[in-house]
Design brief:
CATH topology of the largest domain in chain A: Rossmann fold
Catalytic activity (chains A, B): [L-4-(L-arginin-2-N-yl)aspartate](n) + H2O = [L-4-(L-arginin-2-N-yl)aspartate](n-1) + L-4-(L-arginin-2-N-yl)aspartate
Largest sheet of chain A: 9 strands, mixed
InterPro entries (chains A, B): Class_I_gatase-like, Peptidase_S51, Peptidase_S51_cyanophycinase
Oligomer: homodimer
CATH superfamily of the largest domain in chain A: Class I glutamine amidotransferase (GATase) domain
Shape of chain A: globular
Function (chains A, B): Exopeptidase that catalyzes the hydrolytic cleavage of multi-L-arginyl-poly-L-aspartic acid (cyanophycin; a water-insoluble reserve polymer) into aspartate-arginine dipeptides.
Number of helices of chain A: 9
Order of helices and strands of chain A: EHEHEHEHHEHEEEHEEEEEEEEHH
Strand order of the largest sheet of chain A: 3-2-4-5-1-10-11-15-16
Largest interface: A-B, 47 and 47 residues
Radius of gyration of chain A: 25 Å
Organism (chains A, B): Microlunatus ginsengisoli
CATH class of the largest domain in chain A: Alpha Beta
EC number (chains A, B): 3.4.15.6
Chain lengths: 309, 309
């Protein structure tokens, strides 16, 4: 039996020109030079234009082929349209309106074909709306704000590729703590995942790895206490005891254990450069001492002089 | 020995006209009809105008007297200026620039007099900047955003009336999760307290009670893992395992135990009204049955008829 592919949820507004770390990681997961990627722009109101952008980026990042599949209604989401999914190495859903994705794709033959592609090892990813549809439960829409309130967000049904989770996007840029917390308050069994722009959660074998510029925020509500079952109208919600993880690039998170798996090791370029330089100095010193019989004190003096010059 | 007074931290923009629950709670804590309140507008660039607003509100809420004390420099923050603090029942610091409060008041004779007033039982409160200065550590300034980043916020020294804590304000409205989390990531021993606008944290005997329209967000970092000690420049910070409490009005929190003390009991007006009406009906029915010998079935029929009419 083949292992399932990675699920890659991107928080929207990923860089397409300069430091394209998020889309580069996507193409690499899809197989790099051998990547065959289906772009699904159904969430977007622009179809072909969006596909052309991603075709250009994925191709310049080395992908072998990029095809477009665009069901524009539930009726169009057929097994025939989905046929090419049988031999792509990656599926990418663009941003737009995620209710179009739950309406046109989830639970159709086309949607089933995406799930089947994932099961046989293809990578399935998406950005913004295309990220939210990936999880079992999909945030449909909601209002911004830090504080969770009753009725501030809606839940719909996603593709189920990340079980027991809900994925929100543009997390930092659109101030979405409140709406994610409100969903977890109502369903504490859900793992809330909020992804910043130009950032992705790469999920494989139950481990979530963070790539990109921002962070992935995880809300674990298993032990939380809430009044969501009785809060009226748009009242602020009680959320007590949620465990919070904010994970920048380089961190990894064990989704089953709900614990940090790898701690980020940020670039220590300067420190490393200093150390390398010191090592090089020491080696040169040792060489000179051995070759010329110069004393360490003499050598250090000569080194200082040559540096001043 | 007298018990210390309450500390009341308001998240800014508290209602001054209609539903003034936050300022009303402040005046009540200060003794209601007997309240003598000193307003300190040192953080504000408008002095007398701000005092006049609070004088009008506090007086209309029943306070007996409102005085103004306004040190405008560290040199002015003398014991002489502070003399009236010896017999007020409440101290209120307005909003503005909290670095003016740490610069002009904290650690001066005037600041010591505020601390002494609190110790003998006076209430000490403040809004916005006036809230931040109350805790042991004061958030001086910082940028907005949900995701914690290195160097996004500054810490200065507060009055110390809430030990081991840092208080942020305008929490939901200015998207301040990131800056509060960044401070707790750097100092996990700190209890982070974020207060929404028109909302207050009323702290007395180690218990924080929430009053007002929004919520108080508490970040408990005791068990968190962070990379704050090595994150470079403005990199996003790792914060893993922080425990989060978002508390709407009516909730109470045990600051020492860091646990929810009282769960919010939102208004169940309709439910209660229905129950009361049913009880009244039953009582009337019992009375009529006893007095007139009418059968329960007859009575119920008459009741329905009289309601239709």
């Amino acid at each position: 039996m083949q292992a399932a592919g990675a699920v890659i949820a991107i928080g929207g507004a990923e860089s397409k020109l300069r430091r394209r770390s998020v889309l580069q990681a996507f193409v690499e997961e899809c197989g790099g030079q051998g990547a065959r990627i289906a772009v699904i722009p159904s969430a977007s109101s622009l179809g072909p234009e969006v596909v052309e952008v991603y075709r250009a980026v994925f191709t310049s990042l080395g992908a072998a082929e990029v095809i477009e599949l665009r069901p524009r209604s539930r009726a169009e989401a057929t097994a025939e349209l989905a046929a090419p999914l049988a031999d792509v190495s990656g599926v990418f859903m663009t941003g737009g309106n995620q209710l179009k994705l739950s309406a046109f794709i989830a639970g159709t033959q086309f949607g089933d074909a995406i799930v089947a592609a994932h099961a046989r090892g293809a990578v399935v990813g998406g950005t913004s709306a295309g990220a939210s549809i990936l999880a079992e439960h999909m945030i449909a829409f909601g209002s911004g704000g830090s504080t969770p309130k009753q009725r501030m967000s809606q839940l719909a049904v996603g593709l189920g590729l990340v079980p027991g989770a809900v994925i929100d996007q543009h997390f930092e840029q659109r101030n979405r703590y409140g709406r994610l917390l409100s969903l977890v308050a109502q369903s504490p069994s859900l793992l809330g995942i909020g992804i910043d722009e130009d950032t992705s959660a790469v999920i494989r074998d139950g481990v979530l790895r963070v790539v990109g510029k921002g962070s992935v925020t995880i809300v674990d509500g298993r032990h939380l206490v809430s009044n969501a079952y009785e809060a009226k109208r748009t009242a602020p919600l009680l959320v007590s005891g949620a465990v919070l993880h904010v994970l920048p690039a380089g961190c990894a998170f064990d989704l089953a254990g709900r614990t940090l798996a790898v701690i980020s090791t940020p670039e220590k370029d300067e420190e490393v450069a200093d150390l390398r330089a010191a090592e090089a100095d020491l080696r040169e010193m040792a060489r000179e001492i051995a070759a010329e019989g110069v004393s360490p004190t003499d050598y250090a003096r000569r080194l200082r002089r040559s540096r001043r010059a």
